[in-house]
Amino acid sequence: MVKGIKNFCYDYFSISKYDTSLKTEFLAGVTNYFTLIYAVMLVPEILIEAFPGAIGINGEVVKDALIYGNITASEMLVTLTAIAFIAAGIASIFMGLFVNLPFVQGPSIAIGTFVTYTICCGFGYSYNQALALVFMSGLLFFVLSATGMEEKLHRAIPNNLKYAVSAGIGFFIASTGLAKAHIINFSADNSFANIFGTNMADKNNISAVLALFMVLLIVIMIKKHIHGAIFIGKVLCIFAAIPLGLIHSDGGFGISYNIDITALAFKLDFNGLIDFTSNDTIFNTGLNILIIVFSLCIMDIFETMSMFIAMDNYIDVSNGKLNNEKSAPKILEVDAVTTSVGSLIGSTSVSTYVESTTGVVEGGRTGLTAVVTGILFIATVPFTPLVSLVPSAATATTLIVAGVLMMGVLKYIDFEDITEAVPAFLTMILMPFTNSLLIGVSIGVISYVLIHIFVEHDKKISPLLYILGFFMFVIFVLLPR
């Protein structure tokens, strides 16, 4: 039987053709798992804030608060994490089997942030309604991918804006982490922020020092090429938080073993998306849906294509150069399908993780790498109740380091050309300052189009970018504030 499985893998994944081995593919898959597990666990920690009453004034989960029927915030965090692992597992296996590339998929951090802070907190939709919108975006995603329109739209978007979006999201995530760890503390009206104090009798200050120390430790481990450094740092932070009194251990640490994915699976809520009270409400709510669904698609395009850009700087899956033209359509279609499937089981948009490059660097060349990673994600599901022990310092540590790594694309932005630098800067800086990813993207695209309308240049701008700019202007005007 073992020999049969081995022969199947060699034939199905063309192991010999790509000059690799089962051992190499397996180790690359394990490397991806330890590199990306932090990202999969991070998304639920962001999504839990989409449920009113789940987060207290100190930024921590109110574990006993009933936020969804009879489900507590602690139980919902466990459920969201289990769903994230399942979605990542299914999507990665699907990618490996049907595209035969070592790219891992999972719930998107950027889109999870957009769902929480813009769709739910901004527009006021419930999480189940947000899932319905994500499902619709997946359908639109697939249509655009199948017709080739999505790739044309990608080509129309300047690289500098793509890099700026990635960097801006990194800045946004890192800022959120600094606040969660109480490294910076905002005033009551959020008008200014102060650095943490030196009074170690205050647990917020202890949390801040612990988070900073773990960030430095993770940096050292990354520099020493220790795989899974972010995940290891998070685990160490959790253990360190116990004697420091940052984990409330009430009765067996208060762990909830109730993993009930049926609470969110197939619970998409289309009711209430459109308000039929009057013609005006029908128009306004319908326009909101159009804006959100299109925005989700645009963000998914940015994320997937950013992965292609990043892969150009790494070893390619075959002969030293990634064939984007050949691989892109298949990957985009898989992205679209897994996004809709993910929403059905209760997860936000599923996209391809740019960190998949770690598996490629380790020697992964085929879809077997992605399949191995996917299987490990699913095998992690029984252990998801342990996430209820994660203190805000550990969450913040992950957010800060992940944000810094995402900001690495800053070096690719052309700051010497002022017409490129200003739109990129506005995109990046407005995301954290306005607490809205969509405002940053909208202003960035609008400013880029306006500058290049009135300034003579040698660059040829696609008509699609003008259409996108107009649409982003409409989004900016109608965004809730």
Q: Could you characterize what this model shows?
A:
With 481 residues, the protein is mainly alpha-helical. It contains 17 helices and six strands. The protein has helices at 2-12, 22-47, 73-99, 109-120, 127-147, 149-156, 159-180, 203-223, 229-241, 279-311, 324-344, 357-361, 367-379, 392-406, 418-434, 437-454, 463-478; strands spanning 66-68, 71-72, 105-107, 184-186, 193-195, 350-352. The strands form three sheets. It has a two-stranded antiparallel sheet.
CA-atom Rg in angstroms: 22 Å
Q: Which series of helices and strands comes N to C? A: HHEEHEHHHHEEHHHHEHHHHHH
Structural class: mainly alpha
Strand content: under 5%
Mean pLDDT: 80
Q: Approximately how much helix is present in the residues?
A: 55-70%
Widest beta sheet: strand line-up? 1-2
Number of helices: 17
Q: Indicate the overall shape.
A: globular
Number of strands: 6
Distance between the termini: 61 Å
The biggest beta sheet is recorded as: 2 strands, antiparallel
Low-confidence stretches: 249-254, 312-324
In short:
By secondary structure, the chain is mainly α.
Descriptive terms for the model:
two-stranded antiparallel ribbon; 481 residues; mainly alpha
Strand and helix layout:
Layout: H1 2-12, H2 22-47, E1 66-68, E2 71-72, H3 73-99, E3 105-107, H4 109-120, H5 127-147, H6 149-156, H7 159-180, E4 184-186, E5 193-195, H8 203-223, H9 229-241, H10 279-311, H11 324-344, E6 350-352, H12 357-361, H13 367-379, H14 392-406, H15 418-434, H16 437-454, H17 463-478
Antiparallel strand pairs: 1-2, 3-6, 4-5
Helix pairs in contact: 2-3, 2-4, 2-9, 2-13, 2-14, 3-11, 3-13, 4-10, 5-10, 5-11, 7-10, 7-14, 7-15, 7-16, 8-9, 8-14, 9-14, 10-11, 15-16, 16-17
